[in-house]
Amino acid sequence: MTSGAPVESTAITATTLAVFNRHLGHEMGSFEDAKRKAGIHKAQQWLRARSKTEKVGLATLSAVLALVLLYVAIEDHDTLFVMAEAVHFVGIGFLAYKLVREQNCAGLSLKTQHLTAIFLTIRLYCSFMMEYDIHTLLDLLTLLATVWVIYTMHFKLHGSYNQQMDTLHVHYILVPCAMCAVIAHPSTSHFYLNRVLWALCVYVEAVSVLPQLRMMQKAKVVERFTANYVFALGVARFLSCAHWILQVFDGESYLATAIGSGLWPVMVLFSEVVQTFILADFCYYYMISSLEGGSVVRLPAGLV
User: Fold this and answer.
1) Phi and psi angles of residue 139, each rounded to the nearest 5 degrees, phi first
2) pTM listed for this prediction
3) Where are the domains of the chain?
């Protein structure tokens, strides 16, 4: 009996040490977490204290620095457009995961999905008629995924669709975009209708996310999977915008040679900048929420 006492004592000591270490690790983790949240809160307070002009200046500086980094890091700037389409496809993947896992489409705008399907269909047609390349394959995959989302929302999960909050009518977007496309479109040698359709898909894409943003503004709280999707759209829009802006600095690119030759090049740049800034505010609140470890993204009034 006496010979077993040291073994028993050692076991008790080891157990005590393990419990102590777990407790210490938990305390250290809590301390680090609290320290991180305090830092984020301090940064938020600093940002909130800035004037609107200062905030715009900071956002512009950040965008310029990101553009410079992309310009230096990526030799072929057409790669940015491929990256944008790939990120958009990943964003649709977040939607698919939400629909399959949670079996509801609450918080998703069916009208944004309709607009997405419209501009992708037009762009796919124009790609076949005007320039068939890797973009065509990515557009096809994204269109198929979008059509699946629309089908699922329409027929399988329609009971969870918040139709009363998805109130921005599609024709309010399509009609002005069509008018702009007739006025400003590429001046290439392609068939006139194809050139107008190409312009139409650019303009519709620029504002296709508006119904989703309006819906989120009404809800004020966005669950994680929907937020991931919209953030992916924001990243895709920025990469696409960077693609067109950096083309201006590529001496032999189409846009660089077309600047000053008509309204279309200006409208392309304007559309890309508009769609990037439309999503900029949401992306800011998304990143703040992610740093804080929140399960939802909370939006202030007047986001859109």
Assistant:
1) -65, -40
2) 0.77
3) 1-49, 57-298
